[in-house]
Fold this sequence. Notes:
Elements: E1 8-10, E2 13-17, E3 24-32, E4 37-44, E5 50-53, E6 56-59, E7 63-71, E8 86-94, E9 117-126, H1 157-220
Parallel strand pairs: 2-9
Antiparallel strand pairs: 1-3, 3-7, 4-6, 4-8, 5-7, 8-9
Amino acid sequence: MSSGGLLEIDPLELKFPFELKKQISCSLQLTNKSDDNVAFKVKTTSPKKYCVRPNAGIVLPRSTCDVIVTMQSQREAPPDMQCKDKFLVQSVIIDQTATTTDITTEMFAKETGNVVDEVKLQVTYVSPPQPPSPVPEGSEEGSSPRPSVSENGNLNSSELLTATRAYAENIQQEKSSENLAIISRLTEEKNTAIQQNNKLRQELIPSLVCSLPVIMVMDLF
C-alpha cells in the first residue's frame, strides 16, 4: 500500500494467476483520505493487453474507488513466467464542482505546471490455485482410507486366506454344475434309447406273428 500521496493505493503489485487462453482479473483499491476531490488516471505499458475499468475517475473525500484490471487471454506463456508490464496511477486535486466528464489528459501533464502525484505498479504472474484432491471412495472425511494391502505391498494373511477359500468354492461350484449337466445329458440319452428299443419291439412282434402261418403251410407241402 502506498501512503503519503494524494491517494492510498493497494496493492502496489498486481498479481495475476496466469492461465493460457483465459481472461484474468485483479482489483485495485484507491483511497482518498483528504478533504479534496482527487481525479485519477490509470496508464499501462501494454494497453492492448489489459482492460482497466474505470481507467479514469474521481475519488471523493474520505472515500474509496475500486478499479478492475483485466488481462486479456494469452496464447503463450512468457519465458520463466516473468512479466515486464507496468502500470502508472496518476492523481491530481480538482475543483469540488468538477465531474468525471471534466477529466482531461491535460490535467495529468506535468509540463503545464500541474502538481501530479504518480505511483508505479508492478505486474507478477502467479500459479493458479490447484483444485482439492478428491476424497477416496469409501473413506470418511478426516480419516485415512483403509488399505486393502499391507504397507510392504503384500496381502494380509487373513485376506489371503479368505481369497483362497472363495476361489476354491468357485471352482467346486463350477465342477458341480458341470457334473450335473453330464448326468442330466446321460439320463436323457438313456431314456431316449429305452423309448427307441420299445418302439422297435412293438414294430417287430406283429411282423413275426403274421409270417408264422406262411412258414407252416410251406412245410406241409
